[in-house]
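ingest -> validate -> predict -> emit
validate: passed (alphabet ok, no gaps, 163 aa)
predict: started
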Amino acid sequence: MKGRIEYDDLFQAGCFGLMRAAKKFEPERGLRFSTYAMGWVTAFVWKYIKDNHRLVRVPVGALDKKRALPERITYLDAPLPSGTATRHEVTGAEDRDYERDAAREDVNMLLQHLPPRLRRVARLRMSDHTFEEIADEFGVTRERVRQLKREAVHLLKVRSMGR
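emit:
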């Protein structure tokens, strides 16, 4: 019955693979027969599965080509066909905006517990300023900014563990 694979059929496919390995084996190459045969047995079993696991047979080569093709790219600004969902429904953009805003509020709430100087260093580092830029603003070395950042992270960890 198509679509259902029996153990005996898989065993038979494996035997065909073993027979192919026995015909093509070349002991002069220095491989053990079991190592060589394993590849043939596996290949025959997988080919049998690919040929017989569907109700309608699709050639193995067509399955491999389908797997090799890249997924079709749909751009978010492309017009949607009529009768389809809106872009916000498809992408969940409103949900992501909400999650981003909620995360931003959580971070701001946590930063409020830091001393003003450490809070400023943390905000600048989160907004992708380099240590050198922050050091210039505060009139300290880059190493001191690293220390301040480390201190801010430590205080935030201690604060979050204490909850």
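Residues 97 and 103 are 10 Å apart (CA to CA).
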